[in-house]
Design a protein that fits this description.
- It contains 8 helices and 6 strands.
- By secondary structure, the protein is α/β, with parallel strands linked by helices.
- The protein has one domain: P-loop containing nucleotide triphosphate hydrolases (Rossmann fold), CATH 3.40.50.
- The chain has a 6-stranded mixed beta sheet with strand order 2-3-1-4-5-6, sandwiched between helices.
- The chain is globular and about 45 Å long.
- The relative contact order is 0.21.
- It binds guanosine-5'-diphosphate and magnesium ion.
- The site of magnesium ion (MG) has 5 residues, from helix 1.
- Guanosine-5'-diphosphate binds next to helix 1.
C-alpha cells in the first residue's frame, strides 16, 4: 500500500525546436508571466508545481531544455525517467511542426509506450503568420497516437488546460511504483549558478 503522505511526482520534459516557446509555456504556467529574459538568469534544471485535482494531488516537475536542443546526444538521458513528454512546435513555423515527428520518435525509442506524449502547437496569437492549421496538428497527433492542444504562451491561451489535461492523464498513485518515487531527485540545482536558491524561492520556496 502506498504511504498516505506520498505525493505522486512526475517528470515532464519539454522538447521541440529552439524558439517554439517551451520556456515561455513553462514561465506562463508557473508565474503567469510572459518574460523571455527569465531563462537566461535562472540556472535551475527543473521547476516544481503541485496540482490539486478533484480526486488527487500530483506534483509536476517541469524540465526545460535550455539549449540541449542543439546537443541531440544529451536528449536520451534527459528523456529517461520522464512520465510525460511535451513536444512543442510553433504554428507559424512549418519546419518546427515537421520536426516534431523526430522528437516523438526519439521519445518512443527511449521510453516506448511507458510515457504520455502531448503535441503542442504554440503561438496561436500569430494569426496572420500561421503555417500549420489546427486540423493538421490534430491529424498528426491522431496518427502518432499522442494528445494534442494548441496554446499561446503570449496570450495565456490554453496553458492551464494543457497542464490539466496532462495531470488528468497521469496514472493514479496506486499504480505509481515506489521505486519510481525514490528515483526522483527533488531539486537539482546547478552548482555553478548563484541564482539557483533565489530561483527556488521564486518557485514558491517549495519544500518539494
Ligand atoms: N507571439 C508569440 N511569441 C511567443 C510565444 N511563445 C514564445 N514566444 C516567443 O518566441 C521566442 C522563443 O520563445 P522561448 O520560450 O524562448 O522558446 P524556446 O526556445 O522553445 O524555449 C521568444 O521571443 C518568445 O517571446 C507565443 O505564444 N506567441
Ligand atoms: Mg528555452
Amino acid at each position: 500500500m502506498a504511504p498516505v503522505s506520498a505525493l505522486a511526482k512526475y517528470k515532464l520534459v519539454f522538447l521541440g525546436d529552439q524558439s517554439v516557446g517551451k520556456t515561455s509555456i513553462i514561465t506562463r504556467f508557473m508565474y503567469d508571466k510572459f518574460d523571455t529574459t527569465y531563462q537566461a538568469t535562472i540556472g535551475i534544471d527543473f521547476l516544481s508545481k503541485t496540482m490539486y485535482l478533484e480526486d488527487r494531488t500530483v506534483r509536476l516537475q517541469l524540465w526545460d531544455t535550455a539549449g540541449q536542443e542543439r546537443f541531440r546526444s544529451l536528449i536520451p538521458s534527459y528523456i529517461r525517467d520522464s512520465s510525460v513528454a511535451v513536444i512543442v512546435y510553433d504554428v507559424a513555423s512549418r519546419q518546427s511542426f515537421l520536426n516534431t515527428s523526430k522528437w516523438i520518435e526519439e521519445v518512443r525509442t527511449e521510453r516506448g509506450s511507458d510515457v504520455i506524449i502531448v503535441l503542442v502547437g504554440n503561438k496561436t496569437d500569430l494569426v496572420d503568420k500561421r503555417q500549420v492549421s489546427i486540423e493538421e496538428g490534430e491529424s498528426k497527433a491522431r496518427e502518432m497516437n499522442v494528445m494534442f492542444i494548441e496554446t499561446s504562451a503570449k496570450a495565456g491561451f490554453n496553458i492551464k488546460p494543457l497542464f490539466r489535461k496532462i495531470a488528468a492523464a497521469l496514472p493514479g498513485m496506486e499504480t505509481l511504483s515506489s521505486a519510481k518515487q525514490e528515483d526522483m531527485v527533488d531539486v537539482n540545482l546547478k552548482s555553478s549558478n548563484t541564482n539557483a536558491s533565489q530561483a527556488q524561492a521564486q518557485s514558491g520556496g517549495c519544500a518539494c
